From TrEMBL:
GO terms of molecular function: catalytic activity; metal ion binding
Keywords attached to this entry: Metal-binding
Assigned protein family: Belongs to the FAH family.
Cofactor: Mg(2+)
GO BP of this protein: small molecule metabolic process
Ranges for domain Fumarylacetoacetase-like C-terminal: 43-238
Protein name: 5-carboxy-2-oxohept-3-enedioate decarboxylase HpaG1 subunit
InterPro entries: FAH (IPR051121), Fumarylacetoacetase-like_C (IPR011234), Fumarylacetoacetase_C_sf (IPR036663)
UniProt cross-references to Pfam families, sorted A to Z: FAA_hydrolase
Domain of life: Bacteria
Length: 255
């Protein structure tokens, strides 16, 4: 089992996450703490679950080799080396291309989930978190590239996991990504093709999710791109914001 009573926060330097109330979590974050990812299970990204992203492909979805829109969720793994937490410093491997900053709802699994019915899906969810699903911008959407999506610290999670009871409407959450000097990028989980319950049902129809795993709802279309020297702040609704600093690759090494 993976359970969350309130806000699960893993402060850098502490051996284990702590489960605290909202006020305590916000006070710790306001004091400038740096965090580790508050989860340690497998993290699965979901591709083309945004209506606008799928629509933007146009007739390409009907071209070879697939010749039709996806009939099941397209998943990719964000491996352990990608995990990072609030106030992470992320290397930009090629500053000309930058790093795409995709803000996504992370569904945190509470118990083993296999062949879950849509009507029962929320019984398998412990809580939710904010996932900065980062990648090097690229055009190929059908074969998610390890080279572009699985670089070190390319999955920044947190700052906290919120208990399920705090999130009444996960399919209608406003999303914002702010990068200094630019208009704020805004989106919503409401543009998802599969909502939380349907996505969990469809994924567990062909694979088992374990307690502590995270399944992302997917990145909104036209997510912004950050470059070295820039700072991004991501939010979902009124949750505590997630901060990321982007640095030139030569500056990004961490102990």
């Amino acid at each position: 089992m993976f359970s969350v009573a309130d806000h699960l926060l893993h402060v850098e330097g502490e051996p284990l996450p702590r489960d605290v109330d909202a006020a305590s979590a916000r006070a710790a974050l306001a004091a400038g703490v740096r965090c580790r990812a508050p989860v340690s299970g497998a993290v699965y990204g979901t591709l083309l679950n945004d209506r606008d992203a799928l629509a933007a492909l146009g007739d390409a979805v009907n071209a070879a080799p697939y010749k039709a829109p996806p009939k099941a969720p397209i998943l990719y793994l964000k491996p352990r080396n990608t995990l990072a937490g609030h106030r992470a410093r992320v290397d930009v491997p090629d500053d000309e291309n930058g790093v795409q900053v995709g803000a996504s709802l992370g569904i945190v699994i509470g118990r083993t989930a296999s062949r879950v019915a849509k009507a029962d899906a929320f019984d398998y969810i412990a809580g939710y978190t904010l996932v900065a699903d980062l990648c090097v911008p690229h055009d190929n959407v059908y074969r998610p590239s390890v080279r572009f999506r699985a670089r070190d610290r390319f999955c920044v999670i947190g700052p906290a996991v919120l208990a399920k009871r705090h999130v009444a409407h996960p399919d209608a959450l406003p999303i914002a990504v702010g990068i200094e000097g630019r208009p704020t990028f805004t989106a919503s989980t409401a543009t998802s093709i599969r909502g939380v319950a349907q996505l969990l049902a469809d994924v567990t129809d062909f694979m088992t999710l374990a307690a502590g795993d995270v399944l992302t709802l997917g990145v909104p279309h036209r997510a912004p791109v950050a470059h070295a020297g820039e700072h991004a702040t991501l939010t979902l609704a009124d949750w505590p914001p997630l901060d990321i600093a982007f640095v030139a690759a030569r500056e990004g090494a961490e102990p």
